[in-house]
Model the fold of this input.
Amino acid sequence: MLKFFKQTCIIVTFIGITIGYAQNEIDSLSQELIVVDNIQDKIDLFLKIGQKYIYINPDSANLYINKAKISLMDSPSLPQSANYYKIKGLLLHNKLDVDLAISHFRTSYYLFDEIGNIKEKNEINGYLGNCYKDLQKYDSALYYYGEVLLQIDSVKYTLLLADNFNNMGYVYDTLGENVFALDNYINAFTLYRRLGQNQKAASAIVKIAAINQELGNCNTSILYLKKAINLNIDMGNNYELCTNYLDIGTAYMKTENYDSSIYYNLHGVSIAKDNDFFELEAKLTNQIGESYLEMGESKKALRSFEKSLKISKDNWVVIGEIYNLYGIGKVNYNISNLVSAEAYTLKSLELSKSTGANIILKEIYQLLFNIFNDSRKLDKAIDYYRMYNNVKDSIHKIEQNQKLKDIEAKHELEQRDLENQQLKNKNKLQEFVIFRQRLLVFIALLVAIIAIGLMVTLYILRKNRKKRIAMLQNKNKQIREKSEQLKVSNETKDKLFSIIAHDLRSPFTSLLGFSSLLKEETELGNFENAAKYSNQLNATAVSTYELIDNLLNWSRSQQNNLVSTPQPLLLSETVQEVMLSLGIVANEKRVSVISKIEDDIEVLADKNMLLVVIRNLISNAIKFTYKDGKVVIVKIQLKTLLFL
Done:
């Protein structure tokens, strides 16, 4: 009932604790600043002190942050600049300049991204989510919180992950998405407990309990509140413990278990007295009165309300006075003491109007209507009934407007999620179709190349085998005479096969390497890399096929002896042809092959033999050159001789 009153007490106490702790840290950092000479260290201390001052003295925070900015102009540093924009964003957010805070956070994000600091990037995403949450742009807030969950290392940065689950729970709770809110709060609670962050764990579990109460699961809410009580007892956090007793008392009242409600409220009153938590003592005592009133114990209820009223008056708790005057009026009305009921309820109304605290105005008007109606003062009864209806209608309109805003926000969020999902599905389908088409073309081409290669190889082998058999049958008598010729012929074939094997090894190595990469990328679903490797594999296969065709044609012409057929050739063109065939091998090793052969140099040579020689030279040069190295082809001419 006194939700606003309770929240105010918590905030005031939290701020007091925070100020005391932060001031001690500031004093320590200020002493350190006096003895530091290094400019970079000074910038770090300026930023640390500025950050500590943000929530206790924004003007001092701004002073130190600006000192850091001035120092950065003289001594630029990318990490410190990124940190400056982050802390400046926190200050602006605290001063409610949310739009400017977002601008600073984004600048900080880009700088941390350039550095490669993943933790800070996702911390900034969390701050951006908080900004959009304050602007009630919940879809954007959830987007940035979701980015943290997607990108952050859950093991390394568990606390950051837990904080984002907690923030997402708040947004979903605000939107009325209780199921999603519960899931996120439970995840946050689990991680906080694992980290030993009991204060945050207790806060999360109270929110879980509150949502369960809202859903009507009061028994479940009670179980969670008991866990929060145990946590706060272990931490010695008496203020939060009192609020837990207050909440569990409310939950028991909703289940009509008034004895248990009074039991826990009395525990809270005892702790509140010992620690001078006057506001909570007043509230707990008021709730005890409410329980007695529901039980029909009018005298006990009246004593509790009067006691709570005295505590509220003595400690200037205006909201407590309003509730207790109303409570006393309600008790007197129940026992038919209409004069006292009228007096106390009118005092409650007067105080409510004079302070602008219209939190129970509707209930006050309703009670006054009942009192004057029973007293037969019908004119006043009618007046208060009208006032009651006006307030009721006003509250109803506010609630309807809020519901409408919530529905619009939920609709916008759902629409955005739907559009994103549809776009993702469309892109995935398009990528799959393109990949499948490319894969089919590649497989068909690869099968064709392999089939052609096998057919050519088998044909040559069969033809050579038939020739050898025929030669042996026809020349059996001339074996001795032809032995030397056969020996020369075999040596020629050996040389041919050696040359072919040497020249084919590199391109086939490339084929095997690219096909293996393509297989791995396809299995991993990396379609972009698969397409790139498909193109490279295709280029290697075409080049290899052309090399096989040239070698086989040459080998057929050189069956018996390696006969040279000299002809005028441009040396630069021959070198370029070999460089083109070995280009992929060089690229794989990241070796640059450069020709410095002039275009007008002409040589007299057998083209195929020259190709074999140059190919061996360049291939070996690539093979024995380190990665990222360079192979340069030059000519040295001595009289009539030309050296490469």
